[in-house]
Write a structure and sequence with these properties.
The protein is mainly β. It contains 2 helices and 18 strands. Strands 1, 5, 6, 8, 14, 15, 16 and 18 form an 8-stranded antiparallel beta sheet that branches.
């Protein structure tokens, strides 16, 4: 009888795991390491192509200026260090001759039946992580110090033709040239109201050129909320329970910048790498799987 009890328990737990893992088939995680270099025929390149959870390639939008995005291979010795843990990373630059040139890169990762069945289920929690480095000089002649100077990372359902974040973004991390405390720029997070509005919150992580920053966003579609962690080698910030700016979970990752260039020639540049979008059920299933193995061992 005792053996039968343990067998039934194991079977019940196994069914529970399968139920949790149910739903749209999806990749274990969707990633952009840029290991395939500058290419339009392989998934993990720039601009890349559809596959492995991505609905299509990276899409570039530029407005009143020129945006370049190029995968750079890490040399043997580099100072400052590259932003990623891999051989390749993406370098983004926006420049122009018009006041306020801007641009954005976007890529869709949401599950769509029949077209992107390896995408992320946007009804369940997931985590977005990436590495980011500002390559632009924050002080000096081309200082980061006007309302037209901005860096931004977000998830936004606006068309890829939009060159900056919009009121339909869910989460948004950004920095503005005019938002400072005692002359220091800090990364900002946005606590939204779900109607296109929200409150900008200053973090404790300052903008620093040539410093790699790790950012992690945990998304909760059921409640339209998100958590954030921002880390650089010397500063740490985390906040939970932030609200969406818009009303939906977009499944469209965006990263970009704009620059004030009244005389032309100025630019904003950053490097970007190791983007991962990880569905939460995979973590839960792993933990339950370990529990199942423990039960089997005890039953034996």
């Amino acid at each position: 009888m005792r053996g039968l009890f343990w067998l039934m328990s194991v079977l019940a737990l196994g069914c529970f795991i399968l139920a949790i893992a149910g739903g749209p088939a999806q990749a274990e995680h969707v990633k952009a390491y840029f290991d395939d270099g500058n290419t339009s025929t392989k998934v993990d390149g720039y601009p890349g192509t559809a596959g492995n959870g991505w609905a299509g390639p990276w899409v570039k939008k530029q407005f009143h200026g020129t945006v370049t995005a190029t995968v750079v291979a890490t040399p043997t010795v580099v100072d400052p260090p590259p932003p990623g843990i891999n051989d390749n990373y993406l370098v983004y630059n926006v420049t122009g001759t018009y006041d306020g040139p801007r641009g954005i890169l976007s890529r869709d990762f949401g599950y769509v039946a029949g077209t992107n069945e390896d995408g992320i289920d946007l009804t369940k929690p997931y985590t977005v992580t990436y590495k980011y480095r500002i390559d632009h000089e924050l002080d000096g002649e081309d200082a980061f110090n006007t309302a037209a100077d901005e860096f931004y990372i977000c998830e936004d359902s606006a068309p890829t033709s939009a060159a900056t974040p919009t009121a339909t973004a869910s989460w948004l991390i950004d920095a503005w040239g005019t938002v400072t405390t005692e002359g220091v720029h800090y990364w900002l997070v946005n606590d939204g109201n779900g109607d296109g509005t929200g409150t900008q919150i200053q973090t404790t992580v300052p903008l620093r050129e040539n410093v790699v920053v790790d950012m992690s966003v945990r998304v909760f579609p059921a409640t339209n909320t998100w958590d954030v962690i921002i880390d650089d080698p010397d500063y740490h910030y985390e906040r939970t329970g932030l609200g969406y700016i818009g009303a939906t979970t977009p499944g469209r990752f965006k990263v970009g910048a704009r620059v004030y260039t009244p005389e032309g020639g100025e630019s904003n540049q950053f490097s970007f790498d190791t983007l991962e979008i990880i569905p939460e059920p995979s973590t839960l299933v792993l933990l339950l799987g370990l529990g199942l193995l423990g039960l089997i061992r005890r039953w034996r």
